[in-house]
Amino acid sequence: MAKKGFIVFLFLIFGGGLSAQVDTVKVQDFSNNWVFFNGSEILPLVKKSDFSGNIISFSVDKTSMQDALIRVSHPKAYSVFVNDELIETGSGDIYLDLNDLGINDSEINLTVYSKELNPYLLITSALKLVDQSLSPISNDVVIVNPRSKESFKSFYIAAWIIILVYLAALLTYYPRMLDEYFRVTRAFSPRELDENLLKNRIFTGTNISFYVFISLSLGLLIISTIHLSGLFPEQLRYYPDTMLMGLINWLFISLLVLASILLKYIIISVFTSLFQLKDFLSNHFYNFLRLGLIITMPLNVFIGVVYFGIYQYPHTIYQSVYSLLLYASLLVVAIIYLKLMNSGGYKNLHLFSYLCGTELIPYVIILNLGIY
């Protein structure tokens, strides 16, 4: 049954990538021509961080766009005006054919209005339909950033291939260790069981290979959730323009996660020594990583199934996953506390003080960074 589910998931990933056919090219990006009203005057929007208000306008040369569609996209509800006349309202993608508007002017002014207008999430471009069997040069089309909308999907497919290959390697060379990492009942048990988990050899090659896998998995979950939810649009690292940039950014985020794992070990080591709990060092560190992996992988699978599914889900679905990831970390803190409390005759205040230094304070810092 598990094998069938795995095959279905692979089909969703690769089938979605193969069936996605791109029949348009972007011929112009209007973001360089944006202007906005700051309350007293109309100014060019040189840097998106300078934006204030809820209106962005730009001009379109109709004579050069005879065979093009104007694409406007924003995740929040917005309205499109052409020469100060309301043309369309909605959210997501809106496509306008200038020839159908009945406007004879050679230059047209388009205005986008939204109560929650975010310039980092706003897309304004001109697209042309092309025959894929023909060369773009023969169609006399100047291509600007072709297939950019497919760049994240290409990266996401490549990242999942890497994750699955890595997981297959772990299953081949370290099947017992992998089985121990994914034992949910033991991971969430309030009592620490006597498990042969190589805990006392934290930096062996076997354990390091699992740390890398955890870092790649969590790094993929972070970049995919933030990208698909539309959070932190000013952080361009989560919005790669090409598949290669996506892989580079994913590797960078994964390295940060790996560095955080090392920092976590140092923090636990210092506080176990300070509170004379050295016998809990390996157990605490291992259970922290195991719980993190058990939470990360199902969320990754859920994001993959939703993203490659038949239906298009709104940004709020992915925002909920992001929030769940943040608050699930609190569950990790609670379980580690229960395991620590049942591992010896320690006073609650002593254990709580240790937990504040190793878990609660770092969690509050991560929660604050994740929200703000």
TrEMBL record:
Record's keyword terms, sorted: Membrane, Signal, Transmembrane, Transmembrane helix
Membrane spanning residue stretches: 155-174, 208-227, 247-267, 288-311, 317-340, 352-371
Keyword Disulfide bond: no
Residues making up the signal peptide according to the UniProt record: 1-20
Alphabetized InterPro entries for the sequence: DUF4271
Keyword Membrane included in the entry's annotation: yes
Protein name: DUF4271 domain-containing protein
Originating species: Fulvivirga lutea
